[in-house]
Write a structure and sequence with these properties.
20% strand; 7 strands; SH3 type barrels; elongated; 17% helix
Length: 172
């Protein structure tokens, strides 16, 4: 019940902030009007630019603290609870769809580690709300160890669970 009350309070605060921003935008004095005389650099037949209307207010979405969490820096473990490294980047395609994660794998205290790319669908996020919980990778340590290293500005080799990969289309 308390969580629901807190959610309702957060929604009310968000709408109040939105209403205040809209009110401020509407009460702004009009910018000074320029005279309609063409300048020396402006041709005689040019029409003056139409005044810009104010931008619409942004949309507001509230996500509960227990519903989502960031993944960068999160530990990744195998189903056998082996340390697989941690997520250092996320790969998206041109449409902005998340396709893969870059994992810093191997090494000791950052020495000797390398970055590999795994298919987003090979990751399982079980308890994303608890920062102490790790993300599970549907691959073995041997499979990840055999993966080629990720290097920026080079073709990306994405390691995925059996049968779940689709090619990344970057060239038209």
């Amino acid at each position: 019940m308390r969580a629901r009350h807190l959610s309702l309070v957060l929604v009310a605060v968000a709408f109040a902030a939105l209403a205040a921003a809209t009110s401020l935008a509407q009460n702004q004095p009009a910018p000074p009007q320029a005279d309609n005389k063409p300048s020396a650099s402006q041709p005689q037949n040019a029409t003056p630019a139409a005044p810009k209307s104010p931008a619409p207010p942004p949309s507001v979405t509230i996500i509960g603290a227990r519903e989502a969490h960031g993944v960068l820096g999160r530990d990744v473990r195998s189903p056998q609870d082996e340390d697989m490294g941690h997520i250092v980047d996320v790969i998206v395609d041109r449409a902005g769809v998340v396709r893969a994660a870059v994992i810093d794998f191997g090494g000791f205290l950052g020495v000797g580690s390398r970055k590999i790319v795994v298919d987003w669908n090979a990751l399982h996020f079980g308890h994303v709300t608890d920062k102490g919980d790790s993300i599970t990778l549907e691959l073995t340590k041997e499979q990840v160890n055999a993966a080629p290293e990720y290097k920026e500005d080079q073709p990306i080799v994405v390691l995925g669970a059996a049968g779940s990969l689709k090619p990344l289309q970057f060239d038209p």
